[in-house]
Each structure stands twice: as structure tokens, then as C-alpha cells.
Amino acid sequence: MDLVPALQEPLKQPLKSVLGPATAKVMAEHLGLHTVGDLLHHYPRRYEERGQLTHLADLPMDEHVTVVAQVADARLHTFASSRAPRGKGQRLEVTITDGSGRLQLVFFGNGVHKPHKELLPGTRAMFAGKVSVFNRRLQLAHPAYELLKGEDGEAVESWAGALIPMYPATAKLESWKIGKAVQTVLPSAQEALDPLPESLRAGRGLVALPEALLKIHRPHSKADIADAHARLKWDEAFVLQVALARRRHADTQLPAVARVPVPDGLLAAFDDRLPFTLTEGQRKVSREIFADLATEHPMHRLLQGEVGSGKTLVALRAMLAVVDAGGQAAMLAPTEVLAQQHHRSVTEMMGELAEGGMLGGAEHGTKVVLLTGSMGAAARRKALLDLATGEAGVVIGTHALIEDKVQFHDLGLVVVDEQHRFGVEQRDALRGKGRQPPHLLVMTATPIPRTVAMTVFGDLETSVLDQLPAGRSPIASHVVPAADKPHFLARAWERVREEVAKGHQAYVVCPRIGDEEDDPKKAVAKKSAEDEAEKRPPLAVLDVADRLGKGPLHGLKVEVLHGRMQPDDKDAVMRRFAAGETDVLVATTVIEVGVNVPNATVMVIMDADRFGVSQLHQLRGRVGRGAAPGLCLLVSEMPEASAARQRLNAVASTLDGFELSRVDLEQRREGDVLGQAQSGARSSLRVLAVIDDEEIIAEAREEAAVLVAADPDLEHLPGLRTALDALLDEEREQYLEKG
To answer: Which of 44, 11, 19, 320 is nearest to 164 (CA)?
Structure first.
């Protein structure tokens, strides 16, 4: 939210810099801070109290940290090395303490002279560096440091009061240097233009924006920090919700063709042939979707539901309703395996209704075509022709559907399966193929906490399927600690044999394929400290299948499935598994979504710690799809106390996807809620926490809806307009536009 000219002043300019050119360059390149406003909105992550030292015992491995501590002792050692063969090498070891824990600092070579003079026992300082382990002890090698000189004038000035702000920093720019830069530009905060309407601010007792900026960067008490946070959280929630409310408002202005199914048409014929009754949840969600399809504005609906709650059936009924009304429906799936699976299950469910003649013809029925990138030329030409003429009412495909060559006769509905796998551009390209904007139904099997749905998908109406169809069996999940208790792993393979002996089948999932193209170095490159310590590449499908076939599962029919196989081969493997000809399928996560083999009752996930929470939940949903109970075994070599094991314990302890999605979110942070990066470090939310600030987000959404309804162009709120422009830089503006 860079707000006014003073705040839009670049930190680095050709003629004069607000900051030194080197500092400004690092801020731009490593922290994405380009203007005075950017820097003022780079808030402290936490605060150190002058009288309190940091807990050294809680330092995270491999992370860049800033600590305040006192020097306990300092020793200079000399040693011989290749550079200094005569014993002239120097190493300074400094031990710092916070009264409870101790940490070693180490300096080498010419770098020892300055700290040797300055870091005397009793000295207090701030130290910044990367935590590593040497000789089983935590240490910081060559940390940067800033002395805290008692209460002399300079220290009091630079650290303003008793609370020392700790900023999100980088190895190239320490927290205190950022703090000094902020102090330089802080006077500009007085010119910050307030984005909140005065009535809203006063009504909620929030401080003005200039005061909030002052209090967050230079607090004199914890009450100051609380005031600032309360205000700045509202800014983030409100500006974001206004952006989404304007988007929803703009959508209601677009024209679309209302699609109302004919009373005794294809949908009615399909419902008559279903061998079971719909759950109450499926009926309720279908009513919401049909009501949207009947309006003359494009539907934008998110359908989320537990693994196995019957989302595909609900989506298929919506597609048939559109075909009934003379339009065509397209389902976009993220992988070829899934597109083929959907095509197979849709044609099976529809039976002879999937072999119809012309759209709107007297006989109830339509053509259901599959379109993927690897189809043969003749089959592809036929499919394209069926789409262009309208002969095919339903098409299921991968991103091959988006190509320019693909023309529809009258595209009325786009269903996107597994929304998180698709770039916004891809969805947008498919929506552009309708003569008027088609209706859009987005499906996800990764349940999303309500607030995330309001924040990330705030422009979509949400339908939730949280009931499992009758006849579904419960799934038991257990963590198998392979390193601590190898006999547990042996027992896991016995359980697989027992299930196969009962006539059932099993999946074994591995993180990697294991052929020569698969580089183990890459697979390990971005792992956590725990994985680094282990220094083992993730287990691979080809190796594991080979070992199991020769060892614990000898005599069983074991096959492999992974993403680099030829599409026909993949399809053949899936068909054999579905037909019960294969006992055990060793696969990568290509089976994660949509694969439906009711006879598969057990899943063993190797190196389960290498998968995310929602991915494990998805994978587990592949078993327990029939009458027999399901079993999911999460195999890991991680130590009991590790974060990875806690994550696995959470997955094993509940089947509630919404509960797990909260766990997942708390561990991953929100990600850039508006931009494409949906998790991790790049967060457009600085003080707002999606899970904790549920109430603020809900209230901000209501306030935004009222405001946008009254003044969609924000003519009377220049401050809010400026804040929106800053929040919605070009990339995000397009992201919202395309939805």
C-alpha cells in the first residue's frame, strides 16, 4: 500500500538515494522493497525487550536468526592449516548466554581482530547469522553483530525505547540495519493517506494510519504494538475484501446464457438410471448450482468436499443440465491419468446416454469425448470435429482443451477439477472459448478452512460437501517409524499380504520415480534440516517395486505407475489394477486424485514425511472406497520429536479434511493470497493471519460488500483507491481479473 507521493519516493534514485545505494539495492533485490511506502509496510516480525534475553535453546536449525545475548567468554586459538602451515591460523570462539541456554560464535582468519577487541565477557549485543551444528553443538559462524552499549545516548536513540523491533531480514541485510533504514523514513509516515473510511475507523475505535505506522516501528509499550496490529490487520483484510467485492460486483454485470434443464431430458434420464439415491448434501449443493445456472450472469462457484464425497457426480449432473439446455460442458483435469479416469467413470455412469446423437435431439443422450495431448491424430481430429459441430455435449480433457485449435459450438459450463493444479491463465483461456462468458464450477478435494475460502476464493460462492455417501468405509491410519522400529515396517508388508489373501489390493506410494532422468540431488535440494541430516534421496518407485517383488511381497503381482510412462501404458496398468489383475500398484502421486478402485483397501506411503498434509489426505482417500475398511500406513524415518513426525501424527489422528487443512495452513503460512504463489515465504499478508483473524476477515467482507454496492468505483474514497492500486499491482490485477 504505497500511498502518496512522499511514500512513493524510490529508496534508490540515480541522483539522490533516501538510503545508501548498496542498502537500497539489497532491499529491492532480496526483500522486494522499492519505495518509502514499501519500507514503512515492512513490519517487525517480533520485538525483543531490552531487559530480556532471547531463548537460545529454541533456535531453529539452518535459519537466519537475530538474538540478543551476553558474552560469557571469548578464547583465541591458533592452529596449523594449509593456508597457515606454521600454526599461524587463528580462530576466535565466543560463548554467549541468555541465562538458560548457551551458543557458540566462531570467527576465523583476519575476521577475528575486531570481535576479539569488542566481544569481551559481559558485553551485550545483537547477533545475526545462520544456525548450524558443529561437534553436536549449535553455533553461528561469522555472525554480524551490533553492540548494545548500556543506556548511552546513541543506543537509546537507535533502539528507541525498551522494545527492539526484529525485522524479517536476509543474510545480506541484518534486522538492525533495516531498523535504522526505517527510522530514516519514519517521518514520512505522517503523510500516509488513510484507506479506511472515517466512519468505519471511528466506529471500530481504530487508530489513524500514521499513528499505527509510528507505533509498529517505534513502540513504547506492548499496548502500542497491539493498537498498531489491530489497525493494520483491518487495512489488509478490508482492502483485500474490497478488491474481491469489486470483482464479484463486476461479475454480476457480465451477461451469460441462463441454462435451465428441460423437465424430461437427459438429466432426468440420468437420475433414473442411478443405482443409489443422492445424499442430502449432494441434493443441497445441486440445488445451489442449478439456481446459479438459471441466472443470466456467469456462475462462479467453488465446490469443495471431502475425498470421496461424490463431487464428480454433482459436477456431472450440472454438466448434463447444461447439455439439456442446449449448451456444451467441459471438464478440465490436471493430469492425463485423471482425465482418462473421469472419462471412463462418466461414460460408465451414463451408459447408453453417453452415445447420443445431436444436441437437443429427441433421444436423450449426447456424446462424451476425451481430449488429451497424447491422443493419435485421427482420434483427435474426430474429437475436435464433435466439439465444433456440437455433436459432443460433454468433453473431458487436460490443458489440451485450451489450445487455439479447439473450438466449441456453444460452451455453457466449465468445470475445473483440482483448482490448485491450474494456473489462472489456463482457466481464463478455456473460459474465453464461449460466445458469452460460460458458467464456472471449480472443484477441490482439499478442504479449505472457511477463512481461506473467503480470502483466497473470496470472489467465488462456496458449496461444501461434508457427508460421505452410504456404503463408504472408515479408514484407519497409522505412522510406521521405520528407523526406530524396523519390525513395524516388516509388519506393514505382512498386512499387505493379508489384505491380498482376502482378495483385496494395495497401493504403495513413493515420492520419486527413480529412472536415470530423475536426479536425486534435485529431489533433496530443498529439504528441511531434518532431511538434510539424513542425506538420503527420497525412495523411488522403480527401486521399491523391485525390492518388494524380490523380498517381502515375493509371489504377488506387483506393477508400477508413474508420470513418465507412455499414456497407453499408464491406461493399461490402471485398467489391469481396476480389473483386479494386479495385487500391488507401486506408484508416484499420479494416483493422488480421482483414481477409484473400490477393491483397494490398503495404502503404504513410503517417506511420508516428504509429502504435504493435504497431499497425504488426498492419497489416503484412494482406499476405503468400497465395503471393506481401509488402512493407510505412513512410513517415515524421521525422529519422533521432529516437526515432520508431528505432521504425520496429525494426519493419522483425524479423517476430517477441514481440520487437517487448518494444520497445513498453520505450518505453511498463507502464501501470497492474491498472487500465484499459494504458500510459503512470499505473503501479501504482513500482519493478518488467516486462521487467527477469522472474525476480522468475516467483518471486513461484510463492510466491503456494503461499501462496494453503494460506490463500486470508490469515487468518494481516494485513499482506498490508492491502497487498492498498490495492493493490485499489474500481475495481481490480472490474477483477479481472470479468477
So the answer is: 44
Sign of the CA dihedral with 292 first, then 293, 294, and 295 last = positive
149: phi then psi, degrees, rounded to nearest 5: -90, 85
Q: For 515-545, write each residue's pLDDT tens digit.
A: 655 444 444 444 443 444 345 778 888 889 9
DSSP state for residue 251 in the 8-state scheme: H
What count of other Cβ atoms lies within 10 Å of the Cβ of residue 497? 16
Q: Provide CB contacts within 8 A for 63, sequence distance 6+.
A: 130, 131
Question: Quick check: 614 and 660 in contact, CB under 8 A?
Answer: yes
Backbone angles phi, psi at 180, to 5 degrees: -65, -40
Of the ranges 37-46, 84-93, 100-109, 131-140, which one carries the lowest mean pLDDT score?
Answer: 84-93
d(CA 330, CA 401): 8
Tens-digit pLDDT profile for residues 156-190? 344 434 677 888 877 788 787 888 888 888 888 88
Cα–Cα distance, 198 to 718 (Å, whole number): 12
**Per-residue pLDDT at 509:** 92
| 401 pLDDT tier (thresholds 50, 70, 90) | confident
Give 397-457 as a DSSP string.
ESGGGGSTT---S-EEEEEEESGGGS-HHHHHHHHTTSSSPPEEEEEESS---HHHHHHHS
Q: At what angle do helices 175-185 and 21-31 cross, to 10 degrees?
A: 110
Q: Cell numbers for 137, please give them.
A: 553443538
3-state secondary structure of 126: strand
Q: What angle do CA 526, 531, 533 make, to 5 degrees?
A: 120
The most distant pair of C-alpha atoms in the chain lies apart, rounded to whole Å, by: 98
Cell of 121: 565477557
Phi, psi of 485, deg, nearest 5: -135, 80
Under 8 Å between Cβ of 305 and 480 = no
Nearest Cα to 49, choosing from 220, 192, 202, 176? 220
Enumerate residues 6+ apart whose C-beta is below 8 A from 562: 513, 541, 587, 588, 590
The residues with which 139 forms a beta bridge, in sequence order, are: 104, 132
Q: Name the average pLDDT for the chain.
A: 80
Output the nine-digit C-alpha cell for 307: 475425498
> Residue 90 has what pLDDT?
85
Cβ-based neighbours of 676, under 8 Å, separated by 6 or more: 423, 424, 731, 735
pLDDT tens figures, 566-618:
888 888 898 899 899 999 999 988 776 556 788 999 999 999 998 888 788 88
**Contacts for 641 with CB less than 8 Å, ≥ 6 apart:** none
Q: How far is CA 684 from the centre of its chain?
A: 13
Handedness of CA 38, 43, 48, 54 (dihedral sign): negative
CA atoms within 13 A on the CB side of 68: 19
Q: What would the mean pLDDT of 206-224 be, rounded to a whole number?
A: 91
Please name which of 544, 542, 540 lies closest in space to residue 552, comparing C-alpha atoms. Answer: 544
Name the helix (H) or strand (E) containing 4.
Answer: none
Q: Smallest Cα–Cα separation from 124: which of 74, 70, 176?
A: 70
| Gap between the Cα atoms of 314 and 498, Å rounded | 36
State how far the Cα of 41 lies from the Cα of 213, in Å rounded to an integer: 8
Residue 420 pLDDT: 53
Residues 345/333, Cβ–Cβ less than 8 Å: no
Asked if the model's pLDDT at residue 127 lies above 80, the reply is: yes
Crossing angle between the packed helical segments 311-324 and 336-350, to the nearest 10 degrees:
70
Give this prediction's pTM: 0.65
Name which of 28-37, 74-83, 113-122, 278-287 the model is least confident about: 74-83
